Amino acid sequence: MPPKPSTPPKQPMPLMPASARAAVVCAALLLAAAAPAHADGGGSTAWSVAPSTGSGTRPAKDGRPAFYAEGAPGTVLQDTVAVTNPGPKPRTVSLRGADAGADDGKATGAWIRFAQRQVKVPPRTRAEVPFTVTVPEDAVPGDHPGVIVASGGGRTVGVRLHLRVGGSALPALTVERVRIDQDAGRITYDLVNRGNTVLKPKLAVHADGVFGTLLDRPARPLPVELLPGRRVSLSEPWPDVPALDVADVRLTVTASGGTRARARDTATASARFVPWGAVAGGAAALLAVAGGALHLVRGRRRDARVPEPESGAERERGQGPDAVRELAAAGTGEEL
Question: For the whole prediction, is pTM greater than 0.70?
Fold first, then answer.
């Protein structure tokens, strides 16, 4: 009988590379994360508030991060705020206007009026709420920042309102109360917006000592938005404050108020850097040396006032104290 053909052995399945296995695992995790968290559609149930797209004086194609409005005194401006409820239950949200923290009493929040102060948004629905901004006849030209505040369900969120009243923009900025803190290694100062526009200031620092320049930092933007009438206290680090020197520090601030006009101001401060610990130690050493010298001088003076003892020759010549007494008593008849 002819031999049976041998069956070729089965080849083992090739192992999946480690990188491919890792990719499969990651894909599975992503699919699991993308699965609905709830049977009703899932996703975040937190409501949100934002400017309505396609409205306002400066609409943006992909939405607006804030409200922008501009008008002359006596103008009534209109816009719309959108409240979105992605959750499975109705949500009631309250709306109000507020100031953006200005200290000049402009009360921008009081100029805002909503068509509905309270809106009930159905599940998975967005509600559009119109509102107006009435600029008073006596409103000061310049920037009047405000906030649209929404509250509901235990949370409060806000959207900025950038309102500019027509007229002359007057950016004005001052730097005040410059102080040098040697112990903390810092320069502290105040910035005050004395104009009618929102400012984003820049700061340059320069310091000269007896032996030359100590600091020379070019102008750089500060992480602060200075509203009209606002004062803020800031500090500039100076970790390598000299131990012994006399320094003159100059701070220069500049800012633009959204126009071609720029604000600029300069303030200076002086400080004497003295290592008081070393000075106190040296003074103590000098006092100790002076005290020792005084004690030595006084000791020598006391030694100069003490009489020296008699020598033997003086006693033999009868010049000692006993001889003096004998001579004094001689011829008096007194018993010696």
Answer: no
